[in-house]
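User: Can you predict the 3D structure of Ornithine cyclodeaminase? Sequence below.
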Amino acid sequence: MTDTQFAPAPSSLAYVPFLSVENMMKMVHAIGVETFLTELAGYIEDDFKRWPEFDKTPRVASHSREGVIELMPTADSDNYGFKYVNGHPKNTNEGYQTVTAFGVLSSVANGYPILLTEMTVLTALRTAATSALVAKYLAPEGSQTMAMIGNGAQCEFQAMAFRALLGIETLRLYDIDASATEKAVRNLTAQGFKVTACKSAEEAVEGAEIITTCTADKQYATILTDNMVGPGVHINAIGGDCPGKTELHKDILLRSSIFVEYPEQTRIEGEIQQLDEDYPVTELWQVMLGQAQGRTDAQQITLFDSVGFAIEDFSALRYVHAKATDGGFAEKLDLLADPDDPRDLFGMLQRANA
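Assistant: Sure. Here are the predicted structure tokens for Ornithine cyclodeaminase:
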């Protein structure tokens, strides 16, 4: 008997669909960026509307002076999903991404993974889709202009999502790093937006109905001061996402109606870490189900205190799993040991060395 006859060949159960960065980008372009964002937002909305069905916990975080590494798990009755993600603001100085991620979706029935995927690109897309979805419920009716303070890797994704879901075409950009604004202006102008590069945050918010803040520094910061926020605006605050990191002056919070994903996590990581632990906030899933009010009048300041929650990643994993398997974008990854006899894992190991 030859060595080949002894060596066990992987069965179909050994393989897990794997979506690489290259194939993720191919899939996004095959679908179309704005269509992808719109469909993804639909998945997120569907899952928010069944919020009580999920296991929920604040993400598990390992903090250091340089940044944070996090695991974000959740599950419903059918699937379990988690994301590994880091946030290291100084990485770009050394040629690394600030945020990288990958994720897994598994079957609750047998524990087997049904998808392993990159989530660096996917996180950027799901963050933008969530922001625009929330703005559909909270932004002033007929909003036309968005200010974007912080023009890094997330900037263009936010713009594309707000155009896809709300029709926003006019952008006012500012970043303390002028090269980041130049990059964003170049990319967004090429996508057909009307873009103004501003010299200050104060200039950027002039005439904007929606203000997006998306900065990376891991510190208490004041990107928006109280005098910069007039009545009736919607603030999409997505930069503050860990303890000790904020973007808004406390007085803005006290003037705003505050909406959050998961209070237990947002009180640790979001803008509301500046407030008393029992300060009233509204959960977005309740707004989407009509159990709580969103925007109630034209003068109201609405604030989405966004930190990102695992259910949004679960929605993204569900969406990508459907698209990747249907569209043939996933590769087969030999990830799981599958001996002929499930009780004889050692025998499988030995035969591999025959």
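The chain has a mean pLDDT of 94. The two ends are 10 Å apart (CA to CA).
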